[in-house]
Amino acid sequence: IARELQDATPEQISFTILPGWRMEEIAASISTSGLNITPDAFLEAARTTHRNLDHLPASATTEGFLFPYSYILSRDRTADELAAEFLRNFSLHLTENIRGGFANQGLDIYQAVTLASIVQREAVEVSEQPQIASVFFNRLEAGMKLDTDPTVQYALGYNTIQGTWWTNPLSAEDL
Fold it and tell me: In the chain, pLDDT over 70 holds for what percent of residues?
């Protein structure tokens, strides 16, 4: 009884996903969040929880769909519940207006989120994003490759020398 009365551990924690984080970055931050979920358990859940979402192909990952936000969560959440919460929040923000905008560009939701993620990572300033998106649309329409650093950085994965998922600068060999 005394131990329980002295335990000041809050029942809920605050957990923030920053815009542009990869699934692995989200998973790594879980270990210091106060949740009793391992990074591996979260990654497994994030890769398998989305089977019933209409905007994700069955073969797709949830990369880019784990909504950046500051969440207030109970400590007893399971990995599946956590991944489902992040995906549910994305779906709540996916308005008909946004869906219509994607459709007007000839993109399904998965394509639009993928392209938006690349644009977001490419831009230094938010104000640059529309121009970068326009360049990418023109390249795609012309049947060209995007030729953009974020796609290479994503493919390279974790850089053990730099200690980051986002190698910078990229070498000629990387490109």
Answer: 97
